[in-house]
């Protein structure tokens, strides 16, 4: 999709949302107004917000099954009283849990600040090096920076190994994959996520869902920490800013201010802590994906096709492979694992096998004219046949005098342009005639031929008493082009491929997993792995960036709480806080800007 189309759709969608909200509110549409009041729906330019308030404290207390005194209800100490009723072991685990969150958030605060500062200095240093004026070296020697020297060296010839080709790059479109291409990029740093630019449109539903889950998990961590430390939570909400979803927790400021510094650190660092744990959980699930999906997927029963490069001849959905096909064999070589896939392709590439076809059928389809193209010989022009027919060649031994026999006498002989003896045309002569091997071509149906028995030089066609005489024919292909039969487990007819076998190695992405049931799709595995990858990436990024000392992020409140407990004077605390937050905000903004510039340039 073009960038202009994406921007137009974005503007039209937000305009429609804003217009519908405005019209319904002006018309005083009661169901909509009641819905907005109940769920706190607010619509503003490029922002949609949902907010749910917590039930009244009296309602919560009425639902409690314990006997609570009326004076304790009025005093609002229900949360502390409920905490006191918990077992000591559970209370200790909760305190240790959030204490670990405080430690993790402080480490991330200092670590991310140092790391982002390092990235900024590195990028600025590279920019200064490339933009500074070059001076002429002594004796007229051309000045060349180390970067220019390294980049000017011609790359060595890269030989593709089997291990490198087991995960080939499948080019279906020119879209940028944020995860895969971002990891392969030579430049490290922030990679801004822009839907339609470096985020494929097909990934947007998974991306948005995962981003909402990560944001909600972050805010639920704040809410749980607040409740565990006796701080009132007024409500919880979800918002959409432009195209990016998010969440927030509304904590009552009075009770938060009354809490101790360590309890406030637990609340502020809980979101960061839970995002880090969610990223760790996603990483664990990713490595356990084969075990998790083993009830519906299996290995050792063939290989599944994941994707096919659009440039390959196998990308035709009618005559080629499609995503989800299960490959069972290549020619007569059984494919059960990925190793078998590579072994069978190499075997077909190295061996030159033919097929045993009835001699009468081959002779009846013999062509007397043929022409040679790039990688094959064409001999079906004189027959009224379909494109399913292919030219096959065979070798025959004929007497030396009739090796050039055609349907008509030779033109040279008729015109008397070359000498000839008195032997009648086509006669064998009086002496002993030596036989010579010549190549003949026949136009045969390719699917019928590949279903016959295999033959080659070392294993010629076997003739049985009840069978007709067989002749070994080979596809008239050259320059490494092969005719391959691919048996599929989900189709009745095999796939015939004519082309370079390197296409099967480099342009077909396969998976060792095959479905156990007919309704299961191999794409489920890809979507599951993609969702887990996004969960790890986004949850980790959300936790780490929130730890930075930046205005409006969790790091701001962590810095403020740490300074209040430091013992410095108010004036000095405010000065240090201003310097730290300004520095952290500037570092983050500059890194984001540099990331945008790199993305546009690359």
UniProtKB/TrEMBL annotation:
It catalyses: Cleaves several transcription factors that are type-2 transmembrane proteins within membrane-spanning domains. Known substrates include sterol regulatory element-binding protein (SREBP) -1, SREBP-2 and forms of the transcriptional activator ATF6. SREBP-2 is cleaved at the site 477-DRSRILL-|-CVLTFLCLSFNPLTSLLQWGGA-505. The residues Asn-Pro, 11 residues distal to the site of cleavage in the membrane-spanning domain, are important for cleavage by S2P endopeptidase. Replacement of either of these residues does not prevent cleavage, but there is no cleavage if both of these residues are replaced. The chain crosses the membrane at residues 6-24, 92-115, 199-217, 224-247, 267-288, 534-554, 575-601. It is a multi-pass membrane protein. One of its GO terms (biological process) is proteolysis. Its main location: membrane. Keywords: Membrane, Transmembrane, Transmembrane helix. Its EC number is 3.4.24.85. One of its GO terms (molecular function) is metalloendopeptidase activity. It is an enzyme of class 3 (hydrolase). It is found in: Endomembrane system. InterPro entries: MBTPS2, Peptidase_M50. Signal peptide: none annotated. One of its GO terms (cellular component) is endomembrane system. The keyword Glycosyltransferase does not apply. Residues 207-589 form the Peptidase M50 domain. Zinc metalloprotease that mediates intramembrane proteolysis of proteins such as ATF6, ATF6B, SREBF1/SREBP1 and SREBF2/SREBP2. Catalyzes the second step in the proteolytic activation of the sterol regulatory element-binding proteins (SREBPs) SREBF1/SREBP1 and SREBF2/SREBP2: cleaves SREBPs within the first transmembrane segment, thereby releasing the N-terminal segment with a portion of the transmembrane segment attached. Mature N-terminal SREBP fragments shuttle to the nucleus and activate gene transcription. This is Membrane-bound transcription factor site-2 protease. It comes from Caenorhabditis briggsae.
């Amino acid at each position: 999709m073009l960038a202009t189309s994406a921007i137009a759709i974005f503007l039209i969608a937000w305009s429609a949302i804003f217009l519908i909200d405005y019209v319904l509110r002006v018309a005083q549409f009661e169901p909509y107004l009641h819905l907005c009041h109940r769920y706190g729906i607010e619509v503003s330019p490029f922002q949609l917000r949902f907010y749910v308030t917590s039930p009244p404290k009296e309602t919560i207390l009425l639902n409690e099954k314990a006997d609570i005194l009326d004076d304790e209800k009025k005093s609002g100490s229900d949360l502390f009283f409920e905490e006191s009723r918990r077992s000591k072991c559970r209370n200790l685990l909760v305190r240790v849990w959030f204490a670990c969150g405080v430690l993790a958030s402080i480490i991330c605060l200092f670590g991310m600040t140092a790391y982002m500062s390092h990235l900024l200095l590195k990028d600025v240093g590279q920019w200064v090096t490339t933009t500074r004026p070059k001076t002429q070296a002594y004796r007229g020697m051309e000045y060349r920076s180390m970067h220019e020297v390294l980049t000017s060296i011609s790359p060595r010839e890269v030989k593709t190994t089997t291990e490198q080709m087991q995960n080939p790059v499948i080019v279906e479109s020119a879209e940028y994959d944020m995860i895969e291409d971002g990891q392969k990029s030579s430049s490290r740093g922030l990679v801004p996520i822009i839907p339609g630019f470096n985020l494929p449109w097909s990934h947007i539903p998974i991306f948005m869902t995962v981003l909402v889950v990560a944001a909600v998990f972050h805010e639920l961590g704040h809410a749980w920490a607040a409740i565990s430390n006796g701080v009132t939570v007024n409500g919880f909400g979800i918002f959409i800013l432009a195209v990016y979803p998010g969440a927030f927790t509304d904590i009552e400021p009075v009770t938060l201010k009354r809490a101790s510094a360590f309890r406030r650190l637990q609340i502020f660092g809980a979101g960061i802590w839970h995002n880090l744990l969610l990223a760790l959980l996603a990483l664990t699930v990713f490595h356990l994906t084969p075990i998790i999906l083993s009830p519906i997927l299996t290995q050792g029963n063939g290989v599944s096709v994941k994707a096919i490069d659009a440039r390959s001849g196998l990308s035709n959905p009618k005559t080629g492979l499609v995503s989800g096909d299960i490959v069972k064999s290549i020619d007569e070589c059984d494919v059960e694992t990925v190793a078998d896939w590579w072994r069978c392709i190499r075997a077909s590439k190295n061996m030159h096998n033919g097929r045993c076809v009835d001699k009468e059928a081959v002779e009846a389809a013999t062509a007397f004219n043929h022409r040679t193209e790039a990688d094959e010989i064409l001999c079906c022009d004189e027959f009224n046949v379909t494109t399913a027919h292919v030219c096959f060649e065979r070798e025959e031994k004929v007497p030396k005098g009739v090796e050039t026999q055609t349907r008509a006498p030779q033109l040279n002989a008729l015109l008397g342009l070359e000498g000839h003896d008195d032997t009648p045309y086509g006669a064998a002569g009086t002496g002993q005639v030596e036989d010579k091997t010549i190549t003949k071509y026949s136009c045969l149906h390719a699917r019928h031929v590949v279903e016959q028995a295999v033959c080659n030089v070392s294993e010629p066609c076997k003739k049985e008493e009840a069978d007709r005489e067989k002749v070994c024919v080979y596809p008239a292909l050259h320059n490494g082009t092969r005719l391959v039969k691919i048996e599929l487990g989900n189709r009745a007819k095999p796939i015939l491929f004519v082309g370079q076998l390197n296409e099967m190695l480099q342009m077909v992405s396969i998976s060792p997993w095959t479905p156990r049931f007919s309704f299961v799709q191999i794409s489920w595995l890809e979507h599951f792995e993609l969702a887990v990858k996004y969960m790890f990436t986004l949850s980790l990024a959300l936790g780490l960036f929130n730890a930075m000392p930046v205005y409006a992020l969790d790091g701001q409140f962590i810095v403020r709480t740490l300074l209040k407990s430091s013992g410095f004077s108010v004036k000095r605390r405010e000065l240090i806080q201003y310097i730290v937050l300004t520095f952290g905000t500037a570092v983050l903004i500059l890194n984001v800007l540099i990331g945008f510039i790199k993305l546009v340039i690359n």
